[in-house]
């Protein structure tokens, strides 16, 4: 699988394209060398045959047919290895001189006069089979003359060159493929480091930065630019968060005083209408205080990481306690409230924070599910993960909004008429992040008019060896975030 992913990378495809261009260039170069070399050797052979023919023609003009026969026999006698092939015969194929006994097949139909044939028993050759090239022409007086050369060594040399070209191309392609793989692997590793770091940053680890090698190459420059951009983003986010947290903190005290004054007023008012109006004002103040408290709690979780009370707890027991608290609320709306608990699902975490997360999700399910609806609370173990899941048959969340509901104050369009401040899922996300949890949203009944919502929180199950590890990790991340904010402040 890793090899297949490597082959699909753009760097490998670019290396493959370069390999094709390089191999094509090498092939064209070798083909040109072969064409020039083989053509030169063939031309040399033809020139030797032409020179032999010119000498025999000179002898024929000076000494006649008998002289031609004599000179052919002398040359055959002087050439025991038969590098030159001769055959002189009458028009009815009667041999007069030469070192072969018969005419090669197809020699009478050769239009250009040049033929390639095999020296074997079919032409009366006594030695081992060899390749030959010859020219045939007619001599005055009804005679036919064949003059050729043994080209077996030339043909073997051509085969050697062809084999060398084939091996050269194969080695070139193999080396180019290996080089392209190694180059793309090196490039992919650098890119994968950037991708992995980016994914972790997107998951909330804003203190992380892309490592550099100190070579000041293109990847180092890209990493430095991305790190500077991240520093700036963190600085701006911290500025906005600081302003909102400061507003919430500064307004909470006077709002608490106002709420207390309204409560004292409510006790002293005798008029029923005035009492009702003051009661509504107290309720609104309580809602505002709840919003500010949620903002401050989320800020503390995101910036410092509340891990002081990390202990091994039973998730099914914790969720059971929360269900017992909210079951009466579901009964008031005539909702079916079902629990599916797998026993002894152990995790390591902060019980108070987890209870708040579980309570928020169950409360949301009850709030957004209409009367006579159904709610299912599930606790189970999947491999090395502990899963807490809430399924409801309520209004659900559109697919294009599922990624946005964890933002502060974000509310789905269908739920804006219901009470709430849009901070519940933000708090759930912060608690899940501290416990290395992953939140998954899906429709409970995709085909129904009311699709409902299934919220699943997957957290690492306790195995007996992870205790206190997360606390250390969060402290390191928090320290890194503080350093990043200090760096951003200094740059600003």
From TrEMBL:
Its EC number is 2.7.13.3. Its main location: membrane. Keywords: Kinase, Membrane, Phosphoprotein, Transferase, Transmembrane, Transmembrane helix, Two-component regulatory system. It is found in: Membrane. The chain crosses the membrane at residues 12-35, 164-183. It holds the Pfam family HisKA. Residues 246-463 form the Histidine kinase domain. One of its GO terms (cellular component) is plasma membrane. Signal peptide: none annotated. SMART domains: HAMP, HATPase_c, HisKA. Residues 185-238 form the HAMP domain. SUPFAM superfamilies: ATPase domain of HSP90 chaperone/DNA topoisomerase II/histidine kinase (SSF55874), HAMP domain-like (SSF158472), Homodimeric domain of signal transducing histidine kinase (SSF47384). This is histidine kinase. The lineage of its organism: Bacteria, Pseudomonadati, Pseudomonadota, Gammaproteobacteria, Pseudomonadales. The gene is senX3.
